[in-house]
Design goal:
The protein has 7 helices and 16 strands. It is of the alpha/beta class. Helix 5 crosses helix 7 (267-294). The radius of gyration is 21 Å and the shape is elongated.
């Protein structure tokens, strides 16, 4: 009798226990027993072949996007099921088997190679404080903004970056008033719309090309995680003087939209935004390191 793959578990939340241990988890659940399998490497990816097995789900791609794992591609052919774990970079893995109903194979990928990108990077995180709110449910904006900043900081700390959470009443006050030389600075703020908008947007310092680059990357990484509309990136002036530090502002939702307000209250949504911002920071430093090597 063939083993039947009944479920694939993707644990890609910013607060999951695996990420706190610098591991990423892909779980495979089988109806009874784990079939015989093989694991091979193809460039940086892992290919797991379950032999004499079938699955009760269609072939397809399952997105993870947690900084180290991009996605998992499942397909069945002849008498086998093949799972290709697509990685962003080279990393080690290990497997844990748990017998039972269902029988579980947990495939872990080591996240510590990301330390090579984030080591000692100084990152300012500014959850903006507001005394009033236009929320239809009276949600104070600093509540979700503080939570997103905290979760982003935790992800960065795990990989030896140096995040600084600096809550303020102003989007750019940390860049003007603080003596620390940051590599990048990110504010988190809500925005009141007069256009009945719903969605997320990114602002960047119009005087800094690196800020625009960071905003473009964050726009893409947030789009991959957020179900809300992408309202684009927008230039703004952060004070009269030029700031060498790239400064951006992430607006994860519109303050006076009922739909957006519901998302801001959702802990899972905040977790997704934190992971999206983390991914954007990671991609920014990877891009800058590559540009440095080319130059």
């Amino acid at each position: 009798m063939k083993s039947v793959l009944t479920n694939i578990r993707l644990d890609a939340k910013a607060t999951n226990d695996c990420i706190k241990e610098n591991k990423s988890l892909i779980g495979f659940d089988f109806y009874t027993d784990i079939p015989q399998y093989s694991v091979e490497k193809s460039d940086v990816d892992y290919i797991i072949v379950f032999k004499d097995a079938s699955m009760n789900m269609p072939d397809g791609t399952y997105t993870v996007d947690d900084g180290i794992i991009d996605r998992v591609v499942l397909k069945s052919y002849e008498k086998n099921v093949e799972a290709t774990v697509k990685l962003y970079m080279e990393s080690d893995s290990h497997i844990k088997i748990s017998n039972g109903i269902p029988a579980k194979m947990d495939f872990y990928v080591d996240r510590t190679p990301l330390k090579n990108i984030l080591l000692d990077r100084k990152i300012a995180l500014n959850p903006v404080y507001k005394k009033t709110t236009k929320s239809p449910t009276n949600l104070l904006p600093q509540v979700p903004m503080n939570d997103i900043a905290k979760k982003t900081s935790e992800l960065l700390n795990l990989l030896n970056a140096k995040p600084f959470i600096i809550g303020s009443n102003y989007i750019d006050s940390f860049a003007i008033n603080d003596d620390v030389k940051y590599d990048i600075a990110i504010s988190f703020a809500t925005e009141v719309s007069l256009k009945d908008e719903s969605g997320f947007k990114i602002y960047y310092d119009e005087q800094n090309d690196k800020a625009k680059m960071l905003a473009e990357i964050l726009n893409k990484t947030v789009e991959r995680k957020s179900p809300l509309n992408n309202l684009g990136i927008h230039a703004k002036k952060y004070g009269d003087e030029f700031f060498e530090t790239p400064i951006v502002t992430v607006v994860p939702a519109i303050e006076n939209s009922r739909l957006d307000d519901a998302h801001l209250r959702d802990i899972d949504y905040r977790s997704k935004i934190a992971l999206a911002v983390f991914n954007g920071i990671l991609e920014y430093f990877k891009s800058n390191s590559f540009s440095f090597i080319l130059n």
